[in-house]
Design a protein that fits this description.
With 199 residues, this protein is mainly α. 73% of the residues lie in helices and 0% in strands. The protein contains ten helices and no strands. Helix 2 packs across helix 7. It starts with a helix and ends in a 6-residue tail after the last helix.
Amino acid sequence: MADVATARRSRLTPEREAELYEAVLELLREVGYDALTMDAVAARTRSSKATLYRQWGGKAELVVKALRHNKRIRVEDIDTGSLRGDLYTLMTQDDDCTMQASADLMRGIAMAIHNNPDLRETFRAQLVEPEMKEFQKVVDRAVQRGEVRADCPALEFTLHMMIGGFATRTLLDDQPPTQAFLTSYIDAVILPALGVTTH
């Protein structure tokens, strides 16, 4: 079954696939998940709706694949030799403008997830769980290097802290997350919680 899916997908060039994903993200920013339709995607990308369904199966998978494609850096590619360097790289992969656009997009997706079980399941399976596994490798390397004690009680909450800093910046301060804020947050909150000295 996987080979059939791969064969179907391979008909699109990487450039065409990237173009489709960018159009999906544009529509998401314009109308939100609930109002986004496969008809609108087909019209925006000059595709047939049948082609979209054949390639992605439905709206939830298309949107999640577009979000995943939009990530500039993969967690598994990060290994700077220090936890601080890894976290800085993760949190500052985008400039401030791109970060604000991403934060707005993810806020809209987070709201849609509550009302769309298919989106929630696809988002968890294709984005959240793989990212959690890869992020755990970053943390495990820090333990292996001796930067963080293996019995540190904050270890299991590292990803929660990372996401919390990014997500609550707008909610609490009414400001977008910025590189300056996130790097300060890493040094003031995350690393001290893990027992990592920053000097």
